[in-house]
Amino acid sequence: MRTLFKIFAAALAVLVMALAGVVYLYGDDPVAEGRKLYSSRRLLQRAIRRHKKEAPLMIWMGDSTLMRGRSKVPPYPRTLTELLKKYRFVETRLFAQPAADPYLEYCAIGKLLETNPDLIGIVANPRIMAITAGTRGFLSLASYIPLSEFGRAIWLPWHHRQVTIPRILLAKSLIFPEIERAFHLYEGLRQMFRDELYSTPLKLGFSDRFGRRSYMFAKYAQPVQRPVIDMLAATVDMAVRRGTRVLVVMTPIPIEVLRENDMYTPRTVEQVEEVGHAVEGAGGIFVDLHDALGRDGFRDTAGHFTEAGARRVAELLEPTVRAQLAESWPGFEDSPRGRRKVLREPVGERP
Fold it and tell me: In the chain, where are the structural domains located?
């Protein structure tokens, strides 16, 4: 036993000396690089900072359709906040990342619930829900899954992302700052050495504004994955059980372009309805806007909005959001009540 202890101590000392040497040679550059790779942790911490505790709080989670990006188009939750000012101020926080999907949102929602939001909005995007790769840093957020949820979490379809329960338990250790810094150091070094070995970056983009060769556009042809729907339902269920209302929005998609490429089919509508049934079965509110916008509402085939498109989405969501906030805050009472019904005209006939 004493020999084993000496071996372990010597190995630990060598590891510490190696890490110290790396920090001496590279400084904090690898740590900074690692934080960039796993920026979701920093973004999540930013999303839970409250400014006005006396106001209703709504938190939005989703993909790049909620981000301003290079276009400088205000995300529709910001426009929605402006529309709600007629009644009272609503504090709106955003937690959005490119390709964010229900796996990332499940890992993050426990931390968001600590702020006691009045309403959480989640974007459901068929293009993202069909991708099997997901977001690179989603597992690092598993450290925020509440311990009380692990009994349910172990039965979720983590295998769909090649994740095991031991890896989730290991990620839980990232709540300790020293371990988190060592994790960022390791990942940063790995990325720096990889950049030196592979200097040619992978480039993916659009052939034109509505080009059918778009990498993003091709994802609409893939079916929505059932494990991803299950993770969305589990995310909604966790929030509802803890007393927070959840609004899931099926984001508008460029159906006119999809029709032109024979990619908008009856199966597309069936999958949207399947997502809606799962959300409502978990106790959430589902709003289907997938066919709410025409071609002019999008600036590309990935479903990112023009300014007019983003404003239209905000206008369509305003009655439902007001109805939900009226449950706990005065000033919204004159809003119509309802769950799935949204007063709008769909773009063309459904297949």
Answer: 1-37+181-212, 41-175+222-325
List C-alpha distances in Å: 5 to 2, 9, 16, 17, 19: 5, 6, 16, 18, 21
Phi/psi at 222 (5° precision): -90, 145
In CATH, what is the architecture of 41-175+222-325? 3-Layer(aba) Sandwich (3.40)
User: What's residue 175's pLDDT?
Assistant: 72
Neighbours of 24 (CB within 10 A): 8
Residue ranges for the chain with pLDDT beneath 50: 195-213, 335-341, 343
Q: What is the DSSP letter of 88?
A: -
Cα 299 to Cα 65: distance, rounded to the nearest angstrom? 11
- Residue 132: how many other CB atoms lie within 10 Å: 12
Q: Residue 307: name the closest of 109, 136, 69 by CA.
A: 69
**Interatomic CA distance for residues 164 and 342, integer angstroms:** 40
Closest CA to 106 of 179, 45, 156: 156
Q: CA of 30: how far to CAs of 182, 188, 189, 190, 234, in Å?
A: 10, 4, 5, 9, 35
Predicted local distance difference test score (pLDDT) of residue 203: 38
What does the DSSP 8-state code read for residue 86?
A: T
Residue 208 is predicted with a pLDDT of 41
- Per the CB < 8 A criterion, the answer to whether 343 and 290 are in contact is no
Question: What is the per-residue pLDDT across 23-63, written as a single tens digit (0 to 9) for each?
Answer: 555 555 766 665 666 667 777 888 888 767 788 999 999 99
pLDDT value of position 19: 57
Query: Which pLDDT does position 1 carry in this prediction?
Result: 56
Output the CA torsion 170→173→174→176 (10° steps).
Answer: -170
Torsion sign across C-alpha atoms 94, 96, 101, 103: negative
What's residue 185's pLDDT? 66
